[in-house]
Amino acid sequence: MSPRIKRIRKVLNPPPIKGFKPYGPETNNTQNEPVVLLYEEYEALRLCDYDMYNHYYASGIMNVSRPTFTRIYASARQKVARAFVEGRQIAIEGGKVYFDSDWYHCEKCHCDFNNPAKELQVEMCPLCGSKEVKDYDYTYEIEENTENRPFDTCICPNCGFEQPHKSGKPCRQEECPKCHSRMMRK
Amino acid sequence: MKVAITSTGNKEDSTIDQRFGRCAYLVIYDTVSKSVEYIPNPGKDAEEDAGPVCIQLAASRNVIKIISGEFGIKIKALLDSMKVQMIMLKDPDIKINEIIEMLNH
Predict the structure, then answer these.
(1) Bridge-partner residues for A69, per DSSP?
(2) Segments of chain A scoring below 50 in pLDDT
(3) Can you tell me the ipTM of this complex?
(4) Tens digit of pLDDT for each residue in A42-51?
(5) CATH classification of B2-96 is 3.30.420.130, yes or no?
(6) How many Cβ pairs closer than 8 A exist between chain A and B?
(7) Is B10 part of the contact surface with chain A (CB cutoff 8 Å)?
(8) Is the CB of A174 inside 8 Å of chain B's CB atoms?
(9) Does A111 lie in the same domain as A158?
């Protein structure tokens, strides 16, 4: 049986560089294979050791479970340590990720917005122009509030079974619980 | 500067559509000339990939901000790469003219 599909990890900020090179008299860059640090591992290091979030909170940001996050983080530290000790290069590439930008929340009009111009600091709400903006609180997403979700339905083309559409999950990936055929949008 | 708002109807007092890809109408508001344009969404009843159709429509009008209730997983990545700002307003009762008023802050 094939293994369960990996959940796609969310990465907020891709690294500004492609990797690291060691320097010093003993380094021979061409001889040693570089250590490949995946994007998700870089993100785990950034969240835990740079932004100082705990594993639970950081796992919510990356949209994976807490144990999975801890595994990604452990693998990241192991790779960085290996590069340091063995004097290898670090290449940051690959991994099952998608990129999402930083999100913010406006206290006045209660909207959430992102910042496509990453290098600019967010100062005011793009909608109402108030200065009461703060970083988006990811704890809401961890608790998974499904109450205010839109009201679409998925339907099974085979037997006509209907169920509410899950936001962010294409209907085609959904399987009908009755006849196990692919669902579609009503 | 042009802003797109998802709407449930083609009137000023229509409410915001909480869905992006399957919204009934797309309102294009120009903050400089104050003009408002209502465009019916061609992908409203599409089986799948309704979002990208809607993005194409918005992109053809050169919008730099999109206001909607929620954005799907495919949409976020696409809009992010196009450097279009997404604004999520999770209030289904807010009207189009109220949003336009807020934009004129």
Answers:
(1) none
(2) 144-146
(3) 0.77
(4) 999 999 999 8
(5) yes
(6) 77
(7) no
(8) no
(9) no
